[in-house]
Amino acid sequence: MSLDRRQFSLSLFAAAAAGALPGAARAEGEKTIALMFDAFDSDFWITGNTILKAKAKANGWTTLESISNRDQNKQNDQVKAMVERKVDGIIFIPTDNNAAIPAIRTANAANVPIVFFNRPPAPNDNKYIAIQADNRKIMQITVQALVDIAKKQGGKYKACVLMGDLGDNNAVQRRDGALDILDQNKDLVEVVARVATEWNTDKAFAGLTNALQANPDINLLVSPSDSQDAVIEQVLKTAGKWHKTGEEGHVLFSGFDGDQNGYRLLSTGYMDVNGVQNLFYEVDLAYGAFKDIWAGKQPAQMLIDPGFAISQATLEAKREDMWGYHVWKEKNP
C-alpha cells in the first residue's frame, strides 16, 4: 500500500503504529529499519519521523528508533547496537557530518545499507546514500516568486536577508540562493541588511530589531527558516510593520521549510511565499533506495529533493504536499 499526501495524518500514523492500517502490504517482506535521529528539536524532524514510521508500516516493515541527544560518539555506538540487532537498513540523521563517518564503516562492514536523511556526511570513500534538499534552488524559486510579486505591485524595495548558521552548508546554500535572485534585481530591490541568526532566536530577534532601527523603510524580508517565524512576527509587530497582504505597510515576506507556521502565515495573509522541503518525497527516495539495494541495484549516492515554492495564490492547490499543512490541520481540526 502506498501512502499519499492526502491520506497522511498524525492520526493515521497512530493507527498504523497500532497495526490497524488497513490493507498494509507485505510484499516487501519482513524488514526492520533503524530510524536514528540526533534530536527531536523541531517539527521538521518530528514530522519526518512520523512519515518514516507510517510509510515503513505501509510497506510491511517494522522500525527501531534511537535518539543520540546530539552526541555523535553515542550515535556511532548506537549504530553498532542496531547492526547487532540485524536491522535491514539504517536511516541516519547525524549531528556531525565528519564524525559520523565511523558509523558508515560499521554499517558497511555488516553489509547494512545506510541512508543519510536530509544531512549528507562529509565526502568519504565508504558506501552510503544521502538524501538532500536542493536548498539553493528552493530558495531561488522562493525569492523569485517574492520578486515577481514585488514587480507586480510596483515601487522600490529595501530588503533584509536573515541567514542561518553559516557553518551549516544548508544555511550557506539558502543565503546564496536568495542573493542569486536579489543580485539579478538590483534595480528593484536593494539589500540593506544581512542578519546572521546562527539559527538562534535570540540573535534573530536582536539582529532584525537592529536592522529595522537602522533601516525603518525595510519592506521586503527573506527568512532562512520557519523556525524564526515567531520572532519575525514579534519584531515586525513591535515596529508597527505587521500587516496582511493588501494592507498599507505590508512587508513582503518569504519563509523556508514548509512547516505549520509557514502554512498559518500564508493562509492568514502575513507571509507571501514559502520554500518547502518535500518531506514526503524525501522519505520515498530513502525507502526507494533501500528497495533498490535489496534488489541488487545501486542507486545514485546523492538523491535530490527539488522542493517547491508555495504562495498565497497556490496555497490551496499545493498545500497537500506541504508537510506543515498536515501538522497544522492536526492541531486545528
Automatic annotation (TrEMBL):
Q: What CDD domains does the record tag this protein with?
A: PBP1_ABC_sugar_binding-like
* Domain Periplasmic binding protein: residue ranges: 33-297
Tell me where in or outside the cell this protein is found: Cell envelope
Family matches, as SUPFAM superfamilies: Periplasmic binding protein-like I
Protein known as: ABC-type sugar transport system substrate-binding protein
Name the family: Belongs to the bacterial solute-binding protein 2 family.
What is the organism of origin for this protein? Labrys wisconsinensis
PANTHER family recorded for this chain?
D-ALLOSE-BINDING PERIPLASMIC PROTEIN-RELATED (PTHR46847)
- Point out the signal peptide segment: 1-27
The organism's taxonomic lineage, starting at the top? Bacteria, Pseudomonadati, Pseudomonadota, Alphaproteobacteria, Hyphomicrobiales
The transmembrane segments are none
Q: Which UniProt keywords apply?
A: Signal, Sugar transport, Transport
Q: Which Gene3D superfamilies match?
A: 3.40.50.2300
Where the protein is mainly located, per its record? other
